[in-house]
Design a protein that fits this description.
This protein is mainly α. It has 2 domains: 184 residues, MFS general substrate transporter like domains (Growth Hormone, Chain: A, Up-down Bundle), CATH 1.20.1250; 178 residues, Up-down Bundle (Growth Hormone, Chain: A), CATH 1.20.1250. The chain contains 16 helices and no strands. The longest helix is centred in the C-terminal third of the chain and has 43 residues.
Length: 425
């Protein structure tokens, strides 16, 4: 046989095509440099937000705001976040989610100290618009980068990133509370901003230098399999079929965004009303009420730490179903329990149940719709966090706080059932 025929029968592999089919270097370790760096971004995001939250009473006194005026100023933070999220989704598509993550966290770190220097409600609203832009942008960019890294690692590790956010929030609230009596608001927020810039610089270098994930088609996981587990060879689509599937994917993203919204509704309501319910309705002392909320927050953090293992053992859809139903049952117990220990146990169940719903909904929205899917789901989720406390407040005036809190159980049930519709599609 001529040599040229032998060469045709045994071609040398094309390095480019081989690399495109393989996992990029550095993805074999489940805790590689990119994952650690991105977890640090989530943690500092939670830390900075908590550092601001614990100083809200001081800032309110500084600007001499009434409750309604402060509410309007805080609404500016939400407006800045909601307006920024869709824009950041487009920036992630154009420039990549990792550089946008670094830029958004830098903006957030620079904006954190500004509320301490506002001396009117209007000025506070203006700086909170900037704060919200950094916070909203960081959340979309970080989650988009996390979706890419989940595909790269081929493991459902999204809950671990949100566990980093929860741990950062616990540290920010704890340290902020300890320093509240000895450190002024201006110094506390300035030091928080400097810490944010330091972490952004250090983790940003690592994240940007780490190998990026290969481009994964929407609706497909990092190992070449679709969301329902079928291989690429058995579910290859023509261009026309992919075009017809676009509305289908948008519907999936919308359903997942509604799941995030129902989950965030509960998170926002519990953050604002737990201690009041425990003190006024269950007659707990202020210290016990604070401990009850801390138990809820710790349960949520613990649930997210174990979220990856649970996702592998149970599957994401089943974990979301069980989590939502657990949160619903726990909320009914917490809202209607006549004694403090039982109510606290109910809040612990809520924390465990809600822990992985939001991160998994965002992860699946990113798999279906890319950065813009993350942006839509995050925007809906943030909207749920906004309307939750407001709806609870109006319902509490009409029917009492315990009955109002039972709407969290309804929302958690919806968050449990919506992923079933996504799974069928």
């Amino acid at each position: 046989m001529p040599l040229r025929n032998k060469i045709r029968l045994h071609p040398r592999p094309d390095p480019a095509s081989s690399q495109s089919r393989s996992t990029p270097p550095g993805t074999d370790s489940p805790w590689g440099a990119a994952r650690l760096a991105l977890t640090a971004f989530f943690a500092v995001d939670g830390f900075l937000f908590a550092a601001w939250v614990v100083r809200i009473p001081d800032v309110r006194s500084q600007v001499s705001a009434s409750h309604s005026a402060l509410g309007l100023a805080l609404l500016c933070l939400s407006i800045g976040a909601v307006l920024t999220m869709p824009l950041v989704g487009r920036l992630c598509l154009r420039y990549g989610s990792r550089p946008v993550t670094v830029g958004s966290l830098a903006l957030l770190s620079l904006a954190v100290p500004l509320p301490a220097h506002a001396h009117s409600v209007a000025a506070l609203g203006g700086v909170l618009l900037l704060f919200g832009a950094g916070y909203g942008g960081a959340n979309v960019a970080m989650n988009s980068a996390a979706v890419d890294l989940v595909a790269q690692l081929r493991r459902p590790v999204m809950p671990s990133f949100h566990a980093g956010y929860s741990l950062g929030g616990l540290l920010g609230a704890g340290i902020g509370g300890l320093l509240a009596g000895s450190l002024s608001t201006a110094w506390a927020l300035a030091l928080g901003g400097l810490l944010g810039l330091a972490v952004t610089a250090a983790a940003g270098v690592v994240l940007l230098r780490s190998p990026a994930a290969p481009l994964i088609a929407p609706g497909r996981t990092g190992d070449g399999r679709s969301d329902d587990g079928t291989s690429a060879s058995t579910s290859t689509k023509t261009a026309s079929t992919a075009g017809r599937a676009a509305p289908h994917l948008r519907l999936l993203v919308l359903l997942l965004g509604l799941t995030a919204m129902c989950t965030a509704y509960g998170e926002g309501a519990i953050a604002d009303w737990t201690t009041l319910h425990l003190t006024d309705d269950v007659h707990a002392s202020p210290g016990t009420a604070a401990a009850g909320y801390a138990a809820y927050a710790f349960a949520m953090t613990s649930g997210r730490v174990g979220g990856t293992w649970l996702s592998i053992k149970l599957g994401q859809t089943r974990l979301m179903l069980l989590g939502g139903l657990t949160a619903a049952a726990g909320m009914l117990v917490a809202a209607l329990a006549p004694v403090v220990p039982l109510a606290v146990c109910g809040f612990v169940l809520v924390g465990l149940g809600l822990a992985n719903l939001f991160p998994l909904a965002i992860a699946r929205a990113g798999a279906a719709g890319g950065p813009q899917g993350v942006a839509l789901a995050s925007t809906l989720g943030y909207g749920g966090m906004l309307i939750g406390p407001v709806v609870i407040g109006f319902l509490a005036d009409a029917a009492g706080l315990p009955m109002a809190l039972t709407t969290v159980a309804v929302a958690a049930t919806a968050a449990a059932l919506l992923p079933l519709a996504v799974g069928r599609r």
